[in-house]
């Protein structure tokens, strides 16, 4: 027994030490500093309950994973009960001495609490007060752990741009929450009409509504809208994030009344931490609030969770400093409870700690900038079935994108294309995208103003029926086009035509006056032959033009068939004449260079050779040249030249024939400057904008004459400027084409054509009908219906118009049509010259490389070039077969005295060695002396004469070559 005592003592000692350590650890664990923190929320609504559950979960889970923290936040809650006064947190600051307040839940409540926080230096941290108006209070102790409502405005604007909506009605709650976003949306969505009362909306033409409010007012609004039939086809509803983030808290009945609604909300990545938190939160929330049907936390709950964690971190960083309040001394006997509120000693340090805190929270990166969170991405959702479905995203850099994985971080590719948005189910489930507006059912017919005019009734004609109470009847090309355009719209638009004139057919003003009536709202639109011009677009919006654009000049034409003695020169322009002549001489010179040393036809005295050059070159024009061509290079050049000459002569013949036989109709005036310089009278149609155009062109107003109809125009043009008429008339292309089709044999349009935008329909500025009608104009003008309308009013174009246009074209042939052929001929000729000269210099390289002066070399080379090239096959002897050697044979000069009696080189083509006997010295005489030979006197005239060979030395014995008859 006694042996076991030592072991027992050791065991007791170990037990004592372990007990002491455990007690110390327990005491250290219990040494935490409680820090009171207030929570002001409305626990009667889902937002308050979700926020409270997320805050309590955040602190519980945070301290479970941060057991080493010495501080612990103790929550002191107050129920605001939706009352701004009740939300006052004075008792929390005064009685509980809270160091910070989480909440309140709404912007109106935060508006009052911010003042208390500023006075007591207690940070107010709100995760759901989003109104931009709170930022104007400029309180450094107000921290918005949420987004400012203005950050979602660019996303909503991008949706408008994607679907090309131009108007919207903003429906918002009349308090700080709703008022704050109004200036931002108004600035961003320019031209949006804002309405505030739901019962008036059906009488408006706008069908796009932006709803900015919380529940339960938002859910009641849609229930009422569904009851009024405003959730059907043609309507568009867009929710801001205040209501979009609370869709998960709405009942199935509320969701059913919101089918097809679009919404935007801040984008929260679906990470594993978020998914795990949703599961834990749902379990806890159902335990705490079993009667609440909320299925999952919204973005406000995630912000509440992150705000509580951030506050816990900030308090821990401040440390165990002085957490007391300094009481305010009030000497005034009359004081309120607010005057006795103390000042937190740790407030400034805690504020700075909060502003410097940043971490990865459930909602993303948590960091306070300028007193609030910032987000660069929003999700676009569509209410379908029992909930919402994402259809796209918006980012600050890329605009609208289909998926967040499509973000382009390398370039600024901002897009507002609707193709980047997924399939959307609109209210009423239509198969088309709502255009955003309709004509109200209680509005009157559109009043369409039409011009009253005397002439050109094919475009617009107004008549009054005396048998029908002088009811006006409007017809014409422009009217039929407008009717076709309105019938092609996907919706019905009632309208009526109202003439801008008196019942006796007199107009009430010009076209500018008619357009101005739309600006004065006396007409809803103007239809007719109204031209789109810049000064008119300041008062109205025009649709796309439906006629050919431009303005031109019309003048009489005359037969200009030339009867001059020099008519034969007119087919070609002067530059083509000169170029052709130069090329004829150039080609003759090239052929002479290529043939001179090897062809007897191109040798002789200088005057004879010059004559040969000109004769040969110009005889090729009629292919009458007699000289033979023996050089292959010359043959190539002549092939190209013959082709050029053939084309040139055939074109000349055709043009000259046309000038002498076809009627030549030419305009009497071809230039607008000629009209000004000669002071001719000009005409324009009454009431047309052309008058202003002519004034801008600096025409003398005293030279203007007015016409009202095509008949008057014919009369003025027929008289001429000197006889009380006009020399030219200016008008728009549609009028000119109609006039020319009826009088194409006497008048024509001349260039230039001044650009204008053609005829268009005029509507009030900002009218939502303009885009739809413009698209309808394109559909009509591109189809067969437009052709039928033109044929009905203008008929088929007179066939003489084509002949007229062809006769007005110039018959002169210019160098522009032949420069390619001349270029080919020139390049071929130059290449041939280079080849033959290079060969010549190579043969006489001893001269080129000699030591003589340059002038001596040039004279020697010129002398050698003038001599015959006996190495050529055209000069070789009959018994000397061509060896192809490039070594030169002795050159033989042509004797001027016997040149005319020399036979062609072909004389030797059939001779044999047996026909020509040689003397003993001949084998050396020719090679040594290179002399000339002379003819033998007394030979028979029928025999061919051999080329004379004359010895270089006059004393040398001459070798006589007997001749033979050529076979």
Would you spell out the secondary-structure blueprint of this structure?
Layout: H1 5-29, E1 33-41, H2 46-65, E2 71-79, H3 90-94, E3 101-102, H4 107-120, E4 124-126, E5 142-144, H5 153-163, E6 169-172, H6 176-188, E7 208-212, H7 217-227, E8 236-239, H8 241-244, H9 252-256, E9 262-266, H10 272-288, H11 299-318, E10 325-326, E11 343-344, H12 347-355, E12 358-361, E13 364-367, E14 377-384, E15 387-395, E16 399-401, E17 446-451, E18 461-465, E19 471-475, H13 477-487, E20 495-500, H14 511-519, E21 525-526, E22 540-542, E23 551-559, H15 574-595, H16 606-619, H17 632-661, E24 665-667, H18 672-678, E25 682-685, H19 690-696, E26 704-707, H20 710-719, E27 728-732, H21 733-742, E28 747-754, E29 762-764, H22 769-781, H23 784-794, H24 800-808, H25 819-843, H26 845-848, H27 854-866, H28 922-929
Parallel strand pairs: 1-2, 1-3, 3-4, 4-5, 6-7, 7-8, 8-9, 17-20, 17-21, 25-26, 25-27
Antiparallel strand pairs: 9-14, 10-11, 12-13, 14-15, 15-16, 18-19, 22-29, 23-24, 23-27, 23-28
Helix pairs in contact: 2-10, 2-11, 11-12, 13-22, 13-23, 15-16, 15-17, 15-25, 17-25
Brief account:
This protein has 28 helices and 29 strands. It is α/β, with parallel strands linked by helices and 967 residues long.
